[in-house]
Structures are given as structure tokens and as C-alpha cells.
Amino acid sequence: MSCHPYAVITAQGLLPVLRDTDADATVRRTEALLAAGCRAVELTTSTPGWAEAVARTAASTDALGRPALIGVGTVTTTAHAERALDAGAGFLVSPYPAPEVRAVAVARRAVFVEGGFTPGEIADAARRTGAAKVFPAHVGGPDFVRSLKAVLPDALLIPTGGIRPEEVHAWLAAGAGAVGVGSGLPEDPGELAALFARLARPCHADCADLAPGRG
């Protein structure tokens, strides 16, 4: 049975968020991440040619031969959402509340991690889909996530923004389900593989509410 994207992302612990100068650079970095044991990668609409990069990587596999989970972040409009899903995106992410994207996700039964910063925004997102992106996370720090988890114990929180790879453990210990990291990832293949190996947790194959065609 395939795992829901939330299970894949949670098992990985660290979600790379790629912003590059062009599609070729994003494809190269995605391939390097997959070879290093990463399975879920978030590309972003701020990269020129991002939809092409999604289409070129959506059918890839990770180092263990499992289907890659390629998501698209900084999705804020209907056009972004439709284009990302048409290109093969396995999940969508917005940096803040995005009703237009939410509507597309519902209509197309797509996985959407909606962003928020205030407790109200984060609670609204988590109430709808079970998950929320906390952005910009560095403003509140791990203690902010710890406080949110006290009142949203079942929510999958993915803090993103200003977090370095070496800080991921502190955020996970505070209750984050996974941590978005946009910079500072090792370029050396061995170091990159070691990073994901240290963070890896089991992925539950019996998770409920599987999204058709995902995982």
C-alpha cells in the first residue's frame, strides 16, 4: 500500500525546499537529493521553468527505488495550483492562507499544506487538512512550535524559513512533524546521504486517507 504524502514527509524529517536559477539546476539538485536517500522534495514557483522541472522529476525514484514525491511550494494562485498538478506534483504548499489554491486542491483531491503564521491561521489550515506550514518559522523559533503543539496535538506542523540543517533536530524535538530547509544542505553526496540517514524514521504503510496516485 502506498503511503500518504504526510507519512512520507514525516518519515523523512527534513523537506528540502529548492529555489534555483533555472529548471536544469533544480533537476540536478533533485536528482542528487533522491540519490542521497531523500524521497520528498519541494520545488518552488519562484524558479524559472519550475513546471518543467516538476514534469522532469515527477516520475523519478529514490535511492531505494521508491517513487519520488515531488511537491510544489510558493503556490498562491489558481494558475499555480493547476499548472503544478498538471505537471505531476504530488503535493502543494503555500506560504500563507491561499483560498484559491485550497479550492483547486479540493476539486482535484490534491494534498495541500497551507501556510500560516498566527495560531488562528495555523489552526484553520490544520483543521481542514491535518497539516500546516509554519512560516516564517525562525521568527517564533522551536518554542513557538512547542506552544502550537500544546493546543494542536494532532496537527502535522512543518516549520519553514530561516532553518539550517543542523537545527532540524531541535525543531523535531519541539513537535514539528518535518522541517522545511531551503539553504545550507551539504553538496557532498556522502554528507548529504548521512544527513538524511540520521533523520530517517519508518514510513507507515497503513496510514489512512490515501490520495489517489500518490505516495
Strand order of the largest sheet: 5-4-3-2-1-9
Oligomer: single chain
Mean pLDDT over the residues: 93
Biggest sheet statistics: 6 strands, parallel
The assigned structural class equals alpha/beta
List how many beta strands DSSP finds: 9
Uncertain spans, ≥5 residues at pLDDT below 50? 205-215
- Total helical segments: 9
Strand content: 15-25%
- What gyration radius follows from the Cα positions, in whole Å? 16 Å
| SSE order, one letter for each helix or strand | HEHEHEHEHEEHEHEHEH
CA distance, first residue to last residue: 9 Å
Secondary-structure map with pairings?
Blueprint: H1 5-12, E1 14-18, H2 23-35, E2 40-44, H3 50-57, E3 69-73, H4 78-87, E4 91-93, H5 99-107, E5 112-113, E6 115-116, H6 119-129, E7 131-134, H7 141-151, E8 156-159, H8 168-173, E9 179-181, H9 189-199
Parallel strand pairs: 1-2, 1-9, 2-3, 3-4, 4-5, 6-7, 7-8
What does this structure look like?
There is one protein chain. By secondary structure, the protein is α/β, with parallel strands linked by helices. The chain has helices at 5-12, 23-35, 50-57, 78-87, 99-107, 119-129, 141-151, 168-173, 189-199; strands at residues 14-18, 40-44, 69-73, 91-93, 112-113, 115-116, 131-134, 156-159, 179-181.
